[in-house]
Structures are given as structure tokens and as C-alpha cells.
## 1
Amino acid sequence: MVCTLEKNAAKTIEKALKVLGKKNFAFIMHSGSFPSAEGENTGFGSVNSNGGKEIIDWASGIFNSIQLGPAGKTKSCDSSPYTGTIFSGNPLFIDLKQLTGKEWDNILSLETYNNIVANNPNKNTNKTAYSYIYKMQGEALREAWENFKSKNDKKLMKEFSVFKRENDSWLDKDSLYEALSIEHGNDYWPLWDSETDKNLFNPKSIEQQLEFGKRIEEISKKYADEIDFYKFVQFVLSKQNEQTLEYAKKKGIKMIADRQVAFSDRDCWAYQSLFLEGWMLGCPPDYFSKDGQAWGFPVMNPEKLYKADGSLDDGGILMKNLFKKMFRENPGGVRIDHIVGLIDPWVYKAGKKPKIEEGAGRLYSSPEHPFLKKFAIATMDDLDLELEADKEKRVKTLTHKQIKLYGRLIEKIVIAAAKEEGLDKDAIVCEDLGTLTNPVAAVMKEYGLQGMKLTQFTEPEKPADPYRYKNIDEKCWAMVGTHDNQPIKMWADSMVNTHEGYLHVKNLVEDLSFPDWPDKDALIVEMTKNAEFLAQTKLVEIFASKAENIQIFFTDYFNIYDVYNRPGTSGDSNWSLRLPDNFKSLSPINLANILKLAIIARGEKFAQKNHKLIEELSEI
């Protein structure tokens, strides 16, 4: 199967997806992983580039949506998109090539652009050059800013002024942080020498408020150009993002954003008065981490989310404005990372491990906790006290009123924001992988939220495992893996001739129909030792399932035998994988054959009903 489908083949694929009950088929690729057009590889991908347009063109014949990663501004020392800013966009996603053209009044010289491309240390590999492009992109945008000012294009200047005015609620704070980072020679605010500068938006008295106001005015004047430069970069990115969304819309492609659970250093500084002092968000100890996961992310103070009458307080308003911006800019929807963190978060004391014995607990489910009890929705009578505080079934009973309280943030902020931007709750994709507590499960059910079913996570010895084929329901997004997993081929290789692999295969053979294999024992033996067969069947499984929505990560679709993210690692080598610039010459999965097998896997009656479609798929 060639990479680009002909129109007739694409129509057949579309027909097969419809027959299998699929409403959405999303291609997952974070913006930095996008390929570059010929001669335009600066060292980092962008959906806004010509390479991005090539992917949108290609995807429009197969997919109806593209799931991007978080779009916030990252740090020079940390390429993880999941620690980016909540409002400011990532300057690395600006397509520099456009700034050399007429639309932008040639504010970037071709010489500068060509030098960046020529000196890209990874131009012949499918990896980003993060440290390189972080520095070079900054220098190029500085040149563009100086030319932007000197050329003084009236149309662009007017647009810039409107942008600054319409986004001042977050842009002023983010740009001021940039100025203070220069003032202190460090962009990590806890290391700043001045306590005043650390707390400019966290005054403890009217006197401090007046004092801090004067300091803000002083810094704003001293670094006026730096502040405006920061705003200019955000303006350029916003304008390019809008154009990309319009291009994708014309191609029938929806863009799905990704809202990470984290807040960046910049956000923590700007909104620290809204966070619960001394507490962090993480995960409790589990099979993968005996001490739990200490993420170090701040926790929104429940007392700052809502007022006594139930209306939104400052914290709630901030969160709603964030989601409104995301839904407005991404009409295809928003994937919410770690939905548990919005419903029943696990919190721990700063400087401690996220373990029960060190004071950790569920923010809303710990009525026995000396501090957290004041936030508890569950009562002591609701708890199964034979289970420890980190166990998902510990809250054993819930009234409807309690479920609504657990779901307040979802209803009053997330769903409300979507509705106000003209979208419904189906535009909300919930990353609910891993341990789901009873309150989270109840809220998901109450509001009809669509979670994820990742079949690579199936625990094959458990018949009721939610990721197993027969247990996957319609209202979800099914996939074989995400950005945190091995590609399915790599996973299948690890399963060959193992007991765990045998258990996975045994379930697949029980759940799916294989009419060409009358001897089921022989089928199990073959699939257990044949990684290619197992990987293909795992793909067949998600399409044959009842799930109405399917996602597939770019490494799985293009058979790229490499990992995008290795959790717990850092440095330029992580989060660096890209789709090669010559992606059209790659050999992707045989989607037509997989869809054919998925129809057959549904059983004899279903296959007979769709025998003509099976024949059409066989001819692609």
C-alpha cells in the first residue's frame, strides 16, 4: 500500500471506517515531529510549515483529525511539551520561512534563514536539534522584530496592536516574566534574589500591592522593548496558527489540542496566589514506581476555584479562560491529559515523596487526613477503610450530589467553556489511562465523557480488563499506544515467545474471528512466535472494536521503530523523534488490509454482509 491514497481508494477506506462505526480517525503527531519540506529543515518541525501542510494534505485522504501535542512555550533546558506554558505558545512552532516572504514584509532575511537550515546538525536525520534551534530561532525572531519595527507596516502594526489588547490578561504577565528573567539573569523565578520580584502577583497586603505595582511599572519601562518583542513573537505564532487551522478546515481536517496537567514556571509565578501552598500534584506508588511519581506541579487551591454561592472564583475563572482559549483556537477539540487531576487528584507535600506515610492523599477523598479533610467530598462512611488511601475502590459509596461536586470543574469549567465556544462535550478527549478511582469513573459516566482504551495496556489474565477488545465500549477513543509507549512493532517483538505474549495472543484468538485458521491452537502458536502477525492483529483489534473513535501515533502508522518519549528521561535525545522529510517514500501500515481483517474479525455474518467492501479493500 503506497503512502498517498488515490481518490477511489480513499473513498473505500472511508466507507470501511463508516461500516465499522468509526466517527473519528485521528493521526497523532506533536508539532515538533512534523517533517520539513525540501530545503526547509531548520531542526524542528511545525504544523505551520510547508512540511506541516504536506501532512495535512496527506492526512485528508485518510484521517479526519490530527491530534497535536501541548503547544506551550518550553524552556531551553527542557524539551518536554508537557511542562510548557498554559497561555503563551511555543515560538519554535513559528515557521521562519514565512517571515522571509511578502506577507510579512520580508522581515527575516533569506540569508539568515538559509544559514539556519544549512547548519542544522540533524538535517539528515529524523530527529530535532532542540538546543540548536532554540538558540537560532530566538536570534532569527529578534532580527525579524527589529525589521518589523523599522519597516512599520501599517496593516501588520494594526493587527499587532489588536492582538496585544485582546490578549492582555495573560500576555502582560508572561512578557513581564521574560523581562524579569533578563533582570535576574535566570528564567527560573525561585532562584531570583528579589523577594518582591518573586511575588509581584502575590501581595499579602494593600501596602505590598502598591509597592509591587510600582515595581511592575518600573520593570515595564526598563524592558519595554523586550516585553514588546515577547508579545510580537506570540502575535506571529497566533497569526500562523489561525492560517493553519483555516487550511486544515478546507482539507476536512480537525485539529485536536492537548492540555497538559502541568503549569510552567512562568505560570506558577504569575498565578501562585491561586495554588495550594506547600502541595504538589503527582501519582501514588504503583507497579511502575514504588515511591510514586513526584511531578512537582502546583495544585489549584479548591478554595480559590469557587465562591460560596457556587460561581467561579479567581482560580475557576483562570481555568475557564484557559479552556475557552483552547477550544476557540482548536475547534476540533481538546485532549485533557490526566483527567484524574481535575476530578480526584493525588497530592503530596512539597519536598516529600507522594507516599501515604509522608502525608500524601487524594485531595477530595481524604476525610481522615489532618489537612486535606477540609476539602473532602467523600465522608468517612463512604470509605472502605480496609483499603489504603491510594486504592481506586477506597471510596465505595457516592451520592449523586457528591458526584456532581467531584465533577464541578468538569461541568462548570471544561464543558461550559466548550459550549461557549460552540462545541459539545464530544470535543473533550479525556486521557484516563491508568488507575481510575471510583469518583473519577462516576464523573466520567455522569457527564458522558469519552476516555481512552489503550490495548497495549491490556492485562491479559483479567477477563474484565477495560482495555481488552470485548470490553471496549462505543464512547471512547481506542489506540494501540500513545506518545509514551513503544511502537506496536517494538512491543510485539518484546512479546515473542514469552508467557505474557502467549496470554495476549490467547485473548485475541478468543475475541476475534480468524476464518482462515480453523485450528485455533496452531493460530496461537503462530501468532506467539510471529511479531509481525501479532502487531497487525493488535491494529485489527482497535478497528474491529466497538470504539467510535480511533487514534494512531505516527510511529505506529509509518512503522517507525523508535520511541518518541521515554518517561523519566531528559535531554535533547528525548521528545526528539520526527517523521522523516521523505515520509511519502516510507512503507506505512496496510490500512486497507487491516480494515478488511477488522470486518472479518467481527464474525461471519458481519463479513458476509460486507463481502463487496472486503473485495474492494483487497484490491487496494
Note: The radius of gyration is 25 Å.
## 2
Amino acid sequence: MKKNILKQLLAIILFNMSGHFVSAQEKAAGDERFRKVNVGGYMITKVEKVDTSYNAGYSMYAAAWPLVKEYPGRSFQSGLFGTWMFPQNKGPLKRKDFYTDVEGGLGWWNDTEYATETPKFIMGGVQLNFVGWANGPGAGQGRDWNDPKGHYGVAQLSPWVLWPPDGLNLKQGTCGELFGSGYLPLPLTDPKSTTAGKDIPSGNQCWTLFLNSGNFKGPVAFFTPYFWTKASVDDPKLSGLFLDQRPSQANKAFQMETQHIRSAEATDSKGQTYARIAATQYPLGSDGNSELLHRLMVYNRKALWDKVEAWFKGGAPADGIIDPAGAYMQKFQKGVRSNWSLYGDHIPKDKRALLNITSYMDANVTDSVTLRVRWEGDLITRRKTNKGSVVTLPEYYKLVKTGNDTIGKWIAVAPKDVPTVTGLQNVTFNNTDPRTPVAYVTPHDKGSCWKTPGPAAGPFKTKLGDGSTVTYYWYRFADQPALLNADLSKEEREEMQRRVELLHRNWTKNREYLPAPMIGKLAEIDQALIVTPPKGMEVGYVPIVSQQGIE
């Protein structure tokens, strides 16, 4: 008995240390296989098709909650429900050769330094074929400021919200509340006939992130046109194909994309394979349902662009509130499809078996406004926490093959039905990553765009709910580093300054911009990210984070 226990403990230790282990029992008998695997795949919604004229952005409300019971560290990566906004296709290029979009949303990522059980939000703009990406002001691919890849792709617009480079923090403990977000273009610049000194045009669509949360509402930041057109300078045949000029696709996929949920797989002495996944959970309402995505809206230029464009040209002020005449609510259809599967180095891509999630998930409670599911069966557990009620999905699965099926399907089973010899009951998926988070630090060189012309006030500091501290400065809007790297002349930046000062005077943070949710409670962003401009800088200045780290 003691010897078996020691063997199991040794197996578990080796698993947690190496990620793929051969147990002592396997060495002795050759009848046990215990491997590190992951769950990955998509939860795919069904939505109606809308008219392609609704090509000037979208908004939605996505539930935010802790997806796993125990946060397992950087080996975990998953988004919550979100979408991909591509430019409308033009010409013969296929997406496999021409990938560029706005994705991101709520989730957890391998490169997050200060991650918590509560998800964060990133902007996720993708340059041509992932040569770079922008996750927010100052946040791009990697940390090399000598070779920035999207780091300057997003400019700060709001004078009231800080954007940490590690992602926008939500209030810790968020569990099932709805987080409102969307992108609409604003004409903050004018179209250009040249880009980076070449005869390549740039459009003036500044795709702007709007939020609707419990403690902040309105525009936050935008992608600069140069973020998209930079690729056209190197390859002129791509000119005019990016989001700076092209409308957005009206019909988008709304899915939950999961890459890595830690799991373990073992084979008993009879050759039967079992698996255990990290405890995965969904928010649970008082009616027993999980409300996951709500009020999908699509827009044409009447919704916002036309009034703002006229205002900037000397017309009446635009209040920034979406005009219903340019909006349409896209309806959900019943049903959710899942292709979650278990994968690992030992499993060929075409041999990945699916988890039978739909056997205990009922999406027939979905209506036209809200994607909701109901979880059923004896293997589902429900519990109340101090953060909210959650339902935990089955953790144990058995690989079942029938007939000529050589791949099989993972069928949920009770813990008691899994042989103890597998050791799966003793596996843990908690955070075993001892690495100290790496601080985000911007250039200190006095000649850099961060110092010349430089900030107007600061430094200031604030501690966030994820344990990190951010240092930030106040810059005149036109002098922020992103705009100094956006292929804009001083005159062009000053015209942007004029337009943004109009926005700062008229678009306050305490009213609705996006169409409001029809159900539920709004999630809040971390209160430490809500800031007040210094006296005399209420209009025309923005806060820019220069450093994020542990103090």
C-alpha cells in the first residue's frame, strides 16, 4: 500500500516538473501511460446574417468570469466570447495569404505577466500576417523597443482611463457580469495621398474602442491608420486593402477560442485511456442558466461617423451617442457547437478526440438577444462563492471508440469510475510557475519619442488589482509617442489635437454611448485605472503608462 502511494506521488511530482512523465509503475510494469495534455478548441455560436451595409463597426456584451477554478499560470491560455473584425474583402487575395483584423477581447494569454483568475481585456489588432500586433497603447509583439512591432499602433484617446501594457484590468472578483465593448471608426485624421514618403494612400478610419462598463463609458483608444498601411509601403499591391480605408465585414464569427486548459491523460493496465481536465467553470444565474453573450449590434456610417465628420468640418456638435437609424441588432439562433478536444505532442492533429460537452450543455434556452446555455446531468456541480455562483464542468473523461471509429470521443465519467492506478485523482493544476514577472519599461533615452517633446506632467503611480504598479505621465494628445510614430506631420497632428479637444469638451464619461444592455449587471474595470487629469489639463491631454512592474 505504502509503496503504491509513493509511486503515485513520484508520478505526480514528475508530471508537475516536466509536463510529460513516465511513472515508476510504468517503468516496472509497462502498463501505465501518463501524459500532459491540453484542452483546446472553439465554442461556436449561431447568428443571423445581416445586410453587408452594416460595415462601420459593432458592439457586444460579453460575460466576464474566472474560467478555471485555480489559476494555473502561464501554461493557461483562453479567450472568453469575442469576435474577429476583418476588412471587407476586395480583389482576389485569400485570407490565408492576407490576414489582418481586430480580435483580442477578454481572456488570459501566455505572455501576460500579471495574470489573475479575473480576465483582462486587450485590443488585439493584427498587422499583415502577424508581423506585428497592438494590444493597447504601448503594447505590441515582444518587448524590443529597438524593433517595435505594433507598440505604437494604438493611440490613447480618453483622458480618464489608464491602459496598462499587460492588458486592461477588470475589477477583481468579477463573476458573470457583462462587459460592453465595440469598435467604430472616427475621422480623427484626413485621408493622405502619400505614406512614409511613397505614393501609397492612407485612409482616415481611426477604429476606436468604445467601452460600456459599470464605472466607465465611452471611447478609450484607437488604431492609427499607419498601423495598417505600413505593410502597403513595403508591398504596394496591398494598397487600399486594410481597415484604414476598407469597411469592416458586417458578418463576423462570435466564438470562444481556447488554446490551453491544462489536463492529464493516463492509460490503465487494460489499455483504457482516461483524462482529467483542470476544473473549468461558467457563471451561473439565479435561473440556473449561464448568460454568455448579449446584444450584438452592427452599425453603418449613420450610427456615428456622419455626424462626427460634419462636426469636425464646422457643423453642429455630435454627442457621440449611437444613432439608432444606423444600427441593427443581430439575432442569435439556438444552438452552440463545440470542437473542444484533448491534444498533446503524442496525438497527431487529425487524431484529436472531441470532448462530449454538448451532452451536458443545452443551448435551447438561447433567445434572439442573449446567448445562454443550461448545464445538465449528475456530473455537473454548482456552488456559490463570495464572487458569485458558478457551475463546474465534469473533470474526468473516458476515451470511447465504437465500431470503425479509430479516434473516439471523450465521454464524461464520475471520479469513482476512473481507476486509481491512473493517479489522475491526485493530479493538481495549480500555478507552478516560479518566474518573477518581467516589468514593462519604455525607453529612457532623452532623445526618444517618450522624452522629446515629452510629457507635460508626472510621474504618477497607482497600484492595480493584479498586484502590479503602473507609472504614468500626462502628455499633450498630439505629443504622445504613438502619434509621433504614425507618419504624421506636425500640422496633421495639430489638426488631430483640435478635433480631440472637441471630443474631450463634449463627450463626458458618465453617459451611454453604446446601446445599453437589456439584462444583467455591468462589469467594472479596475477602479485604480480611473484617473482625473491634473488641473489645467482637463482638455487635450491623455495619460500614458511608461512602466508596469512589482513594487
Note: The chain has six helices and 33 strands.
## 3
Amino acid sequence: MRYFDVLIIGSGVAGLSAALTAAEQGLEVCVLSKEERFEESNSYYAQGGIVYKGENDSPSVLEKDIITAGDNANYVAAVRMIASEGPDLVKEYLIDKIGIPFCRDDSGDLDRTQEAAHSVRRIVHVKDETGKAIETHFFEYVKRFRNIHLIGHHSAIDIITNCHHSSDFQEKYREPRALGVYALDGISGEVKAFFANAVILATGGVGNIFLHTSNPVGAMGDGVAMAYRAGANIINAEYVQFHPTILYHRDIKRFLISESLRGEGAKLMNRKGDYFMRRYNSDLKDLAPRDEVARAIYREIEIEGDGFVFLDTSNMNDVDIAERFPGIYARCMEVGIDITKDAIPVVPAAHYFCGGIKVDLNGRTSIPSLYAIGESACTGVHGANRLASVSLLEALVYGLRVGRYVSGKLKPVKKSLMRSIPSWIYPDDEEEFDPLLISNDLLTIQMTMWNYAGIIRTRRRLLRAMSDLSYLSHRIERFYKTARISRDIIELRNAILVGGVIVKSAFGNKKSIGCHFIR
């Protein structure tokens, strides 16, 4: 048993931001990551950039762009806070305090790029590896704090609450509160209890429950699943954003082709050589919102019967492509695609979860002492569809805000209450399951979500998805209760739960809005 002031699950930009400001208030902070390498997160793989300030820009202009992209389903107060506070926090923390090496132009000013649905060039970047730069520099910065305890290779299993876990029968009648988590030590195989006065979920997205995704393999919706089982409110789960352009190649999976290429002039083209986006959005064309572009590509693939379309870079005459996009250039060259000359084969893939654990402006969930930030939370900033490069901004703003907020709201966990929480109960006869069975169940979930609850949905497909996932969930729960616990089984259990939540939310919303499209 270990005890901290603040326990943060997840080590992306949101989690590290919360750890930083909580530690600055003098709190003892623990950051748990299921990864061996702490930087491994959705944040690390963000290519394009982070929203800052542009010429002829203002908080009201940014607010309008975010709400327009979100199809007017956004929480206006949250958008207003992000638009007014966000750019200043980028300067204070990322530029001045941590020293992220954002690219600059010849005069020394920050270089700004543009992405789809932004009305001005306001996105600062580190070429095409912005997330990697922010995450690695941020991690090095927080390592300086002796009161931040970084523990890797631990997979959170469930949130410990007084009502669900205490052996004191009276706790069932008291107000619920989060006390910590049970977590699996990936090296020893032991399940440990971590207690804290405040628990912050920063576990990232859900992309890996879909067959095609830009997300790393760990993005299984862990935080959403844990919060759901604990009784927290989940909202807007139908809004799963699909990025229009993921590299289509048999030897490379999950590699994002940044929207910034289209911001710098690249155009989508079908295999007949037609720049088709003008047929779907005559005004914005290739810089239309992501949901429109993803559906357009999906339709082109359906119409032509081909497995992909092209991103043509021949229009980027004023850009040194290899210098501006070195990561994409190098990765594509590995498989013989020279993006300075060759069109890039691309397909859409699951990218960002706009829904999640319902929180207020201070990251509070419906369970006292439990907070959520980053992609696992639904702040309402993104509405029905995320505006490009706002997610890193949201992670930073809410992470910093919640880290500060909890310092004044801590309610210490009584030692008697901690003692009433039992140790993890292992099955009497642990079974060692064949890994192939687990991987096949996950593949079934991924195919079901992609085919029936993907870019274009129908009522009939969603009904089939609900039926298939419901059947599979019983089998997986039996797995979980009898198997020797492992990261794979924990993630499988979370994937089937989150898949079901998304499908039910999608079926309950009969209106096409944002990235939830019903045909």
C-alpha cells in the first residue's frame, strides 16, 4: 500500500501538466504509467502542433473556430476558457518555463502553420514532431521535482471507492469518493493498492478499439472504463473523430500524415487524378473539418472500390517538404515513398475521442475526489468534432488548472478507511489463457467497431454491433474473473466496455452531427 496527496494515471501532456502544478503547490504526487517508457502516450505522437496566437487573431476568433468545427455542440464556457487562457499558458509554461524548441522564421518569430477549419495561421510547431518535443521536454522538466514520483510498468485496473470496496458496511451508505486504484505491477505480476486524497485520470483515448487507428497500442479507453465501472457519468461517447490521412502501407501501421501538409498546400486526389474535395466542400476544399474530409475519402474509396486515396504534394511549391516535415519524409522513405515527388497513399483512421468522462471546468467528475483530464475527459471543448491542434492545448490548460485546483480541495483519506480496503483477491485457480484467444477477441471488437460504428454508421449496423459486443462481453468477463491477471486481459475488459458505451450512445443519437454520421 502506498499513499500520496495526488495520484495521476497517465503520463501524457495532461498528466504531466497536472503533476507539475500540484508539485509546485508542495503536494506529494505519484504518476502511474502502464508503459515502460514514460513518454509513450497519445501526446507523443501528435505531429501538427499546438494552438497559439496568430496575426489578426483573438480569443473570440478562436472560440468561433472551435465551436464551428464542433458543430455548435460545445460547452461554451469551456471553449471560452481555453480560447482566453490557453495561448498565454503556452507562452508561460511551454515557451518560457520548459523551453520547447518551437520552430521560428528567419526573423526569429515563432513560425505558425494552418490546419483545417482554422481561420488564421495560429499553430506553433516543432516541424512534424511537435508532440514528441513537448512530451520529452516536459518529462525531463518534471523529473527535477523530488515530490513527483514516476512509476512505470503499472496498469491501473479499477478505481478504489469507499462504497464499492470498503469492508466497513457503513461506507455503503456514505457519499462515494475515490480513494485510489488497484494497479498491476507488470514486472512482478503483483496487484498493489495506491491510495491518494485525489485521483486524476489522464489515460488518453480509445483509438485502439478500432481496426484502423493513429493511436498507440495502449489507447484502450482505460480511464473511461474505470470511471464507468465506478459510477461516473460518461457523455458524448458517439463522437469519435477519424483522422482523414493515415499512411496506407502493409509494412507501416498507425502512422499519421499530418493535416499540416494540407495546410501548406497538399491536396487529396483519387486514383483517377481528380482533386475530389471540391465536390464535397466547394469553399474549404481540403481544409474542410476533419469529419467532412474523412467521410469524403470513405465515399471515394467506396465509389472507386480502391483501398485508399492519394495526398498529392506537388502543389506545395513554396515549402521545402523534407525540411519542414522530416519525420514524415523519413518514415515514408523507409518504404520507398519520396513525398517530395510521390503522392502519398492514405486512408482515414480512428484518431480522437471527443466524448469521455463528464467533468466541470475544474476537471471534477460526478464522483468526489475523482478528476479527469485530457482525452479521457469530456470537457465539452470539442463538442461533436475536434478542431485540429486544440487537443494539446486542452490537455495543457486543464492539466495545469486541475493540478492547482486539487491543492485547495484535498480531503485526506482516513487511515481507518484505508485499512478497511481489502488486498486484491486473486482467483483460487488461476488459468493461463492462450494469448491467441485474447488477441482474437480484441480483433473481433476492433472489426465490429470499424465496420458497424465507424466513419459512416447506420441504425442496422449499430444494432448488430450492440448484439455482438454484448455476447462477447460475457465471455471476456469470465476470462477476467478466472485468468491470471495481465495487461492484455485488463485492456480487453476495458475495450469491450468502452466499445459498448460508444455504440449505445451512437444508437441513442439519431441525428447526424459532427463526427457522428448516420446514413
Note: The mean pLDDT is 95.
## 4
Amino acid sequence: MELSTLSRLERLQQGSGRFKGLLLRHFAGSVRVRTSIAATVVVGAAVAVASLGLVHVLSSQLTQNLVVTARSEAASIATLIRSGEIANPIPLPRGDLGAQVVDSKGAIIASTENVAGRRPLIGMNDLETTMPNTPFRVSVPDLGAGGDGDTRGIIVALPVTSGEGLATNLDPAFSSLVSAQSKAGIIQLSSLPSGATSKSPYYVLVLASLQGVDEPIRALGVSLLVGIPLLLVIVALATFYLTGRAFKPVEQIMSDADEIGGSSLHNRVFVPEGKDEIASLARTMNRMLSRLEESAESSRRFVADASHELKSPISALQTALEVSLLRPDQTDWKSVALDGLAESQRMQTIVEDLLILAKDDAGQLKVGRNPVDLDDIVIEEATRARSTTGSRIELAEVSGGRVLGEPEKLRSVVRNLMENAVRHCESQVSIVLTQRDFSVRLEVLDDGRGVPEADRALIFDRFVRLDQSRSRSGGGTGLGLAITKSIVEAHGGRIWVEENQRVGHGARFVVELPAEDPTVVTAHLESIS
């Protein structure tokens, strides 16, 4: 019983540990949490620096004000000394101030009541080496009547020399002031002993308690210690809430994206209002989905067209074999074999063309970077074409042109364009090859019906036949120009078609390829008749 209880407790602890781990990973990986933490840290650091600066500035300002007050009281007492009269105890308007008047020997002549009977606030060595009005920071006893516990203060020392000496009797005006202050109960005053005169210098020492500085700073510190954490909590919660609202469209976009599959590429993700980054992301994803939809549709058409193209020779071959097998004695097997070989060659051509286009779609149609004399290829292919057609092939405008590429693929370009021109011309095909600075241009012109302007962009698509009356067995597969375009673009060139302006009708196919050496000056070749 005890073992089973321990086992259950252990499983509970393991489950709790896994739950805590999942919770921690979830929150640690949350952008909302990371953003909230980052905002809280940044605001906390900024507020802490600002608070320290505020405390420092406030403390410095209050201390400076206290020093100014102490210097003012010292100057007032010095004025009484110079008049030859001084009251003992010295009356001061503030209870956080204390004052002493000492002579050059360190003897206390007069003092305020709150420091009466104490030793000089500053030793004579410090007084003699200190500049006038330089404040001392010292630890001092309580100045208040009841004791305020303050032990920090600032002392201002002011040296004074009396020209008249100190008198024991006060004038009537000062006596009235002393009497009024005495009646107010602030301090008790008495006159100096008679005969106390001196020509020696005197020092006025005014002690200012820092209690008036420490208490506001302490109160400000308590307020900051309470307010800053509360502010950081508000910042964290506000950031968490606002980022949640900001990322709400992202959750909708993620939900929409999860529902899009291969059969639903026509769907689009939610686009929030506005022109912020999230809306831009949604529009970018929709443009990507449009491209994927077009690519998938193109692939489906490609597969369907390829299947249809392969089906024709396979069906023809299968039908010929089935008929021959039904009447084996009456079949010319040599003719059947030749027809089957022709169909198999046609299938091989289609498969090779499809392989080139598949490599182009996958971005794997690589070409060599070898120097190729394009004029040699043009002459060779023209010679071959002349042997198979009665049309005139004109090479009078073929000059030298060298490019970087793969000879066999470039030969395929020339052959496809030349066969296409021979197939559609009425009587003549003209070849033009020129090199102009940075490019080599190949032009193939025919005097046929030409390509309608509306179809010139479609003619390089796959399985396109503008001449619908032409059968598959009597011509190409509709892949020649598509393959030509892929090879030209793989060589860094471009191809287009326009009207043959020389005869007013027909087609003019133009291929531009980068030249191997733009500084080469080409020479015209002799016409081959």
C-alpha cells in the first residue's frame, strides 16, 4: 500500500514537472511575453536612471539653498560684530540653524542657545586654512530643543574683524528686537560681560542641519520605491495587452494558412486594415499563394499536355502492333518495325524535351561557360537545313559572334528557330548574326504568315500550336520554342518575336546573348550560296 502511494506521488510530481516545463517553454517562446519583459526592463532602467538623477538634483538644490541661508545668517551676525555689539545667546530665526562666535584663540564669545556650552564647532587649524564661506560637512548633535535625531550638517565659517571692539551694552533698537524675541519665547538673550573689547579677528560659525534636506529626499525615495514597481506592473500589463491585440491578426493569418492545401490554393489569408507590417505580411503571403497557384496550375497543364503528347505515339504504336498480330501472315514486319522505331524516336524526343523543361522549372538547367563561335553553328545548321528543304536560306548577313556557353544547347536554339522558320516560310529564310559591343544578336526571318501580335507572348509557352490544323504527327510537339527560351535565358540572354519588316509579313525571331569579349571587332563572312 505504501509503495503504490509513493509511486502515485512520483507520477504526480513528474507530471507536474512536465507541465511546468511546457508552460515555461510556451511563455518563454511567446513574442508577447518577450516583448512585455523587454518593455518592462527598458522602462524600468529609464525610470531608475531618471529617479537617481531627480534625487541627486533635488538633494543638491536643497543643500545649496541651505548653504545660502547659512551664509546669509553668518553675514548678519558679522554685521552685528562690526557694529561693536553682539547678543549672547545669538538670536536666529530658524531652529535648524546654530551659530557661534569665537575669537582668534578659539574661545567662544557668543552662541545660539541650541549650541550653548559646547566646544567650537570647528578647530582653529581648520578655520585658519579654510577659505571664507567654504561649507564643511560634519556630524553634529541635535539642534532642536527636543532633539530631532539629526547628526548631519553643514558649517559655514566667516572671519570677521571688529574695528570698534565688542560692547557689553546693546543699543535701544537691538534691545527692542531682543526683548520682542524673548517675549515670543524663541530664545533667551543676555548681554556680554562688561569690558570685553578686542581688536583681534573673530570667526562666525553657522551650523545648518541637513534634516530639511534628508526628510524630502527620504519621502521622495519612499514614493519612488512604491511608484516604480507599480508603474512597471502597469507597463508590463499594458504591453502584454497591446501586443496581444496587435498579434490578433497574425493568429487569423496563421489559421487561414493552416487551412490552405494543395487543392485549395485559390484561398487567401486574411488581410487586416491599414498599411502596417502585418498587413504587408498578409499581402505578401497572398501574392506568394497566387504564384503557387499559377505554378500548380501550370504543372497540372504540363502533366496533362505531356501525357497527351506521349499518348499519341504510344497509341499509334500499340494499334499498329495489335493489327499486325491479328494478321501476322499479311503484315510487312519491316514496315511495322520502321514505323515503331519512328514512334519510339518521337517519344524519346518528347521525353528529352520534358526533361530539359523539368530542369528549368527546378532551377537546375546548368550551362557551360566555354567560348563558342555562334557563326560556325549557324553555318552548319543552315547547311543541314538546306539538304532537307527546297526553301532558300540566306546567310549574307552572318558575321562573327563569340559567346560563352554550351555548344550543343546553343545548337539546339539555332536548329529549333531555323526549323520553325523553314516550316512556316513561303520561299525564303534569312539569318542575321551581328556582334555589337556587349552582345551578340541572332535574327531568324521568314516570309510566312507571321505571328499575330496578340499571340507573340504565348508562342513561347509549352504545347502551344498557333496552327491548329497541323497534326502532331506532321510537326513538332509544341515544346521547341519553350525549350529555346529556357536555354537562351540560362545563357543570360533573351528572345522575342516581331514582324518581318523587310517583306511586310512573316516572323522575325531575335535572340540576344552576352558576348564573350565586347572589344572583339567582327568581320563579315563571305556569303554561302
Note: The first helix runs from residue 2 to 28.
